[in-house]
Amino acid sequence: MTFLDFVYYTFIFVVFFQVLLYIFFYGRFAFLKQNKESQKSIPISVIICAKNEAKNLTRFLPSIIEQDYSNFEIVLINDASNDDTLQVMEAFASKQDNIKIVNVKNNEAFWGNKKYALTLGIKAAKNDYFLFTDADCKPVSNQWISEMSSHFNSKKAIVLGYGKYAKTDKSFLNKLIRFETVITAVQYFTFTKFGLPYMGVGRNLAYKKDTFFKANGFINHIKIRSGDDDLFINQVATKDNTTICISENSFTESVPKTTFNQWITQKRRHISTANHYKKTHKFLLALLYTFQFLFWSLALILLLAKYQWIVVFSLLLVKIIVQYIIIGLSAKKLGEKDFLFLIPFLELFLIATHLIIFIKNCISKPNHWK
Asked: Which one of the record's GO molecular function terms can you name (predicted)?
């Protein structure tokens, strides 16, 4: 058997695996019809940790205040900001009696650690159910709290939501960011539906107070400055206590990065945090990435060598069509669809970028928090 023979048969196996993966694994989410949950009026604490976010709070906090929900407080955590963040918080609090401010000063043992600030805010929250978002986020509707809280019940103590990014016209970077956000969401929603929840995003995440305190908060990874959302969920989420919320009114929308350097810095933090996931999750995620990498690498080798190129090109098209259908249906659920025709190019770019970031992280540690 020649080298190209080996590459060819390996490529056929990889395509077969990926097609089955999209149809029977990711298809679970793509074809999901989530039942409408009955609305509840449980007391909710919306928790927002902010560091140097005066402008974003001024812009987005009104969308939290204006939520159509009967019983909620807003816990604003000022994490040692050096701009007007605290003053902005105090201005809102003077007009709203359901706003509570937690002013955190730098602590030598936990300097620059968002988890320390969040812990103080969580301890100050009066309600038994928490809903988290970021200072640069806004709910897409005034039903955000209602939709997310409706998924709590006697068994489900963690609700994973979707945090989208705002659309910018004529921007490849913006399409890339939103594509990756969709792919990441489809992945963690699908894993959750199969009983393997492994992460959530702090832009839109809810859990019960006792879930936090039974796990001793962030203590198991307090020295890892990032991961207040995904590492905590990776630690405490199970097939029994975790559910998802994908109704359109439950989404939040964030301000996306506008330069590749900013985005790469953000991705370095995210990828470095994933190294601390449970071994099973790391293995599965690495396996999925490996098959993506092999698919494109082997296809390019075979096409450049013109080896069985008609069969190779046909298999390439089959995989792309199946991917387009499944990701297209999933993206439609999440209100994203304008980048679909770019899926192959965006996927190739992401695969290469993640590989470069992984290598870079092995050489030097990324920065964390602000």
From this structure: hexosyltransferase activity
Q: How many domains does the chain have?
A: 2
**Domain of residue 49, CATH code:** 3.90.550.10
100 dihedral zone (left: phi>0; alpha: psi -120 to 50; beta): beta
Q: What is the pLDDT of residue 110?
A: 53
With the C-alpha atoms ordered 71, 73, 74, 79, is the resulting torsion angle positive or negative? negative
Which residues have a Cβ under 8 Å from the Cβ of 72 and sit 6 or more positions away?
A: 43, 44, 45, 46, 98, 127, 131, 145
Which pTM does this prediction carry? Answer: 0.92
Q: What is the pLDDT of residue 54?
A: 97
My answer on whether 90 and 142 are in the same domain is yes
36 falls within a domain: no
First to last CA, the chain: 55
CB 117 within 8 A of CB 42: no
In this structure, are residues 158 and 237 in contact, taking their beta carbons and an 8 Å threshold? yes
H or E stretch covering 244 = strand 242-244
The Cα–Cα gap between 67 and 131 comes to 13
Domain span at residue 351? 3-31+280-363
* Consecutive 10-residue averages of pLDDT for the chain (370 residues): 93 97 96 80 96 96 96 96 95 96 77 84 97 97 97 96 93 94 97 96 97 94 87 96 96 92 84 88 95 96 94 96 96 91 92 86 64
Instruction: Tell me how far apart the alpha carbons of residues 263 and 180 are, in angstroms, rounded to a whole number.
Output: 11
